[in-house]
Design a protein that fits this description.
This protein is mainly alpha-helical and 174 residues long. The protein has six helices and two strands, in the order H-H-H-H-E-E-H-H.
Amino acid sequence: MEREIISTKQQKIANLARQAPEMVLTTLAHHIDLMWLEEAYRRTRKDGAVGVDGVTAEAYEADLQANLSDLLERFKSGRYRAPPVRRVHIPKDGTKKTRPIGITTLEDKVLQRAVLMVLEPIYEQDFLDCSYGFRPGRNAHQALQALWQGLMDIGGGWVIDLDIQDFFGSLERT
């Protein structure tokens, strides 16, 4: 039932954005309530590495309602501050180099998911069908298939794969 309510709210947000594209939506935070956070928690991956706080999904879930209520109160009151992101370097395949990634806390992931759930219905409808990055129901394999099909439709072409090595790491630090 909760999923249907969230889905209905998201549809209303999408309809509003579609019907009045010139309208400036100054606040959407009122859509995020406890039920919204519960659904955001359900949609959040729970098997990832822990953030700087060391809190696992199991530990957070042990007192889920209290944790989500506290998160909602801090979010609504403006007291929520995103915690630092834990930096981890993972090895790049086939090299001795590593790639830095940031690992956020579970609670921050839940709130990010809740905000995404509000914003996605507004912006998703504006994307072109050929856009694939970080969109619901789309993945890299589908993007590659679309690229291949597009190349086949025009009888071939050039594909250039570039990796700007350590671009930001080479900037002088002051």
